[in-house]
Amino acid sequence: MPVYRDEAVVLRTHKLGEADRIVTLLTRQHGKVRAVAKGVRRTASKFGARLEPFMVADVQLYEGRSLDIITQAESLGSYGALITADYPSYTAASVMVETADKLTESEGSLQQYLLLVGALRSLSRREHGAGLTLDSYLLRALSMAGWAPSFQDCARCGTVGDHSAVVVQLGGIVCDDCAPPGSPRLDVEAVALLSALLTGDWEHAKATPERTQAQATGVVAAYTQFHLERGLRSLEHVSK
Fold first, then answer.
1. CATH fold of 82-237
2. How many helices (H) and strands (E) does the chain have?
3. I need a labelling partner for 198 at 20 to 30 A (CA). Which of 17, 53, 73, 207 fits?
4. Residues of the signal sequence (predicted)?
5. Could you give the 3-state DSSP secondary structure of residue 181?
6. Where are the domains of the chain?
7. Rounded Cα distance, 203 and 200, in Å
């Protein structure tokens, strides 16, 4: 089919020529798509604002040889302006779309699409703290990609118990027998928070003190960058 429609979230954009943009989309049904939006940088463009990062739109595309062409775009979720108005939300959203871009390098995923849209919607509505929302998104996105961390049983041998050593290379929390010498240790509260973020227990997550949240954030960042095998450029700008 030369022409198709799909729902999509805008991951990033690049200038092309004087008036066009290349838009990278994560779509609901067709995976990740790179397409040209012609004339969107002109002030008279009808759908330029609908194709900014973090926006969700119903798009119509024409299949091209190397890049598809966006012919229509109707807004489904105008999250961009609300997110960019708040710096912590903006930096968190930037990490989210960069992560989604890397996780869907080879093929798309409906689960990844729905997770990203839900996280961006939550950020725009300020439902939870931006940092907590980001950490929860990263843990869930990595789990969907096949890298589910363990924050209860030992990630290496499966021993049940209250473990405190964390080794991201081994998959999360490990018992004392499996922990290499010098492995960092987490407070009980930080381990519980990581579990809450992974399962979506927001009542527990929001009740934890900032010091515990900061400890958990460090683990999530290390775990994410280890499994993506490449640093996330936007992560360094996230508010600490």
1. de novo design (two linked rop proteins) (1.20.1440)
2. 7, 7
3. 53
4. none
5. coil
6. 3-78, 82-237
7. 9
pTM for this predicted structure: 0.94
Q: How many residues does the chain have?
A: 240
Q: Which H or E element spans position 119? A: helix 110-125
User: What is the C-alpha to C-alpha distance for residues 238 and 208, in angstroms, rounded to an integer?
Assistant: 20
Q: Which CATH architecture has domain 3-78?
A: Beta Barrel (2.40)
Three-class secondary structure of residue 107 per DSSP? coil
